[in-house]
Amino acid sequence: MPDKRPLFVTGIGTGIGKTLISAILVEKLKADYWKPVQSGDLENSDTLKVKSLVSNTISVFHPETYRLTQPYSPHKSAAIDGITIDLQKIIAPETNNILIIEGAGGLMVPLNDKVLMIDLIKQLDAEVILVSQTYLGSINHTLLSVEALKHRQIPIKGVIFNGDIEHHILNYTGMTLLGSIPHINPINKRIIINSGKNIFI
Q1: Does residue 1 carry a pLDDT above 90?
Q2: Catalytic residue among 18, 28, 35, 157
Q3: Domain spans in the chain, listed from the N-terminal domain onward
Q4: Is the dihedral of CA 44, 27, 87, 64 positive or negative?
Q5: What's the CATH superfamily of 7-198?
Q6: pTM of the entire structure?
Q7: pLDDT at 2 over 70
Q8: Is 177 exposed, middle or buried (0-12, 13-18, 19+ CB in 10 A)?
């Protein structure tokens, strides 16, 4: 079994590069990948995106526990699909490798009427890699995310910036800087490989 907790990649919001950074980590660490909840875009899921960007032959891509058809917050997508997400059914896959887990949206994304994404992180006993991105309000969003994790006593491995490093965030939180990637869109495999050199994990 791995000598470390699974690494849960979450962000300070939606659309800030969690999937890209997950792919970099999977490739760099030759880790396994698992996205417990995929909400919409099933034909081009995050699992398929990460798989297409990874070239090593060691990583295993574990199937999602929930594959929801609509591109909304998981609780809404599940309701449209006529189901309720049950946290007890979300069980981390067994692996002898490092496991990278990618969340959906940010920490406070609802999974059902009572449970949030942060509750799933706690249940999985994972260590968080927080993805931040510089924009107006990002310091506030990052600090709030860190406070929420600390309040629930969830360990934080460190922060990766998608774009410029915001040193005020590091100063205020004391988080470990795990690196940064250039703010890029669209992504391609060459950028994945090159960006991995800037991730210190």
Answers
A1: no
A2: 35
A3: 7-198
A4: positive
A5: P-loop containing nucleotide triphosphate hydrolases (3.40.50.300)
A6: 0.94
A7: no
A8: middle
